[in-house]
Amino acid sequence: MSIPSEINAAGRAVPDVINGIPVIPFKGVGKHKPSGFKYGPRIQSCSDYPEDGNKVVTTLEEALLRCGIKDGMTISTHHHLRDGDLVSNRIFEIASEMGIKDLVWFPSASFPCNDPLIKYLEDGTINRIEGSMNGPLGRFVSEGRMKGTAILRSHGGRVQAIQDGEVKIDIAVLAAPTADSFGNARGTGGNSGCGVLGYAKADMMYADKVIVVTDNLIEMPCFPMEIEGNYVDYVVVVDKIGIPEKIVSGTTQVTRSPDRLLIAELTAAFSSL
Amino acid sequence: MSQICATSGNSGPKIRSDCKITLELRNLGGIAIDLKSKVEVLYGESIRQQCIDVLDYFGIKNALLTIDDSGALPFVLSARLESAIKNLSESEGEYLPVMLEENRYSTSPDIFRFSRLYLPGNNPAMMINAGLHSADGIILDLEDSVAPDRKDEARILVRNALRQVDFKGAERMVRINQGDRGLKDLEYVIPHNVNLVLIPKCESPLTVKSIESKIIAIMSKCGLVNPVHLMPIIETALGVELAFEIARSSTSVVALAIGLEDFTADLGVPRTVEGDESFYARTRIINAAKAAGIQPIDSVFSDVGDMEALRQNVLSSKALGFVGMGCIHPRQIQVIKNGYAPEQEEIDKSKKIVQAFEDARKNGLGVVALGTKMIDPPVVVRAQKTIELAVRLGLLSGNWMVETPA
Asked: Is A37-247 a domain of CATH 3.40.1080.10?
């Protein structure tokens, strides 16, 4: 069976249908003009949470149940905790215990700490991963052992896919180093401070349900905030969301170069304005 | 002995913003360029073209040029190539990059010299972003931070840097070598708007005079107008003895500095943090500078890891009378500037004293009093100097007396 293909603007032969899904070959920079409207998530109601604004539930499992987790849903996470992340694996551990199948994991990136997810790919809890896959996870997928089609997007491309409705997130699980009971949260403070939570913004705004997971619950209001509680459905407090020594890992290292330290200082001053 | 192959510049895994050039002159075959560069895709063509232009300028028609590039900017590339060419042929030509318009400024004799950042003259990577760190002055060093066998190529690199690197308004200083090499260094740098020349290991007013004469000759030949200030560095016992003569040897001398590493070596004692061994030298330099009406400048603080020790050092340096010091790392600059600037408490106290002085004057009183304390004239003078410094630093508005309610 021959795969129909055309030559894209980068001079590569690519198909225009992949596993039954039509795709658009690269047309060149600035050539593809999307049309239509931005996607909108489901309307939530403030009557879904207590009058005092306290959205805390006891466990991640309970939060997922209350979000109505079921087969085939798309679950998204951010990667700001890098190789020290303790939350994303837990989601699929719980799902597997519940017997949920064919979930789509939509992380902004994955790390070696996510290798244990291979067993949930094997047992069908996870249908596919739409995000970066390296190391053993990448090998597993490259060997064709994942049920669904792997999709890799750039960081900007992931945000575009979310806001244009190409990927509809059912539940976003956002780990946050500091949060209050209303769901306002930020990336600094506590034991697992990781910096900014930029990769979580699109998930926060466009997911049907948003769960904030923190190990540092503080008094309302969490200010300044990067995650706005208005978008959040549930807050879960756990012992540890991440391993601090491993949060600074991969391509993220503390710099000693004076030029880079100057950039860091200016950035920190700017982002605290 | 005719040499046909020369190298210049640096390459290696830790090298950035530089290149290593190997030039082999030939008798025929035209110019062959073997370029290895991380930026081949974006800049390969312009790098090759620039090399052809430089070789053509020096009349070289047949050669093999090997370049191992680690991101060298054009002014570095042409400096390295020119060095290699000059190793092989006696050319008087100079391949000068364009002089940035923003590099034509002059500095006044008494600008603030709280911090001056030393930049090794043969290390392009450190020069490029030096201006971002807001030192009062940057020193392109041709002397101790350059290996002896690299001093020739450093001259050309520093010359090009003076033209092409934007130091963002910092005072443009060069530390030349001692003796004849230093006089020759001036030919390479003075034509390119150096604001101040540092004279290392200065031991005689005659040294200052000979350097000054050479500078005047070059300025006249090139039609330069911006003043070139001089800062002799005292680094030996003999220099200390002649401090005052050196300080007033020329109207171009604007500051007198001390180099404590070399000085303590000259005395044959270790340099300590407390500095007892150099106390006489330091106070002698301060005294000589003040007597000659110029700025006394302190030595560098070598421990770049200890900011608290640096801060203490700056405060005691200021208390003795120094008005600035050398830096060897950008992270030291802010600590040094904060240290030498007057503190808010000092400014507030000085405001009260000067106000009391003004009030006494207006009321025709001969005696200045603040509360129950009498204020002697020298106290007023000191307070006025602090106010002046604060205003110049922007820590106090020039109209503070009008703005303060009676």
From this structure: yes
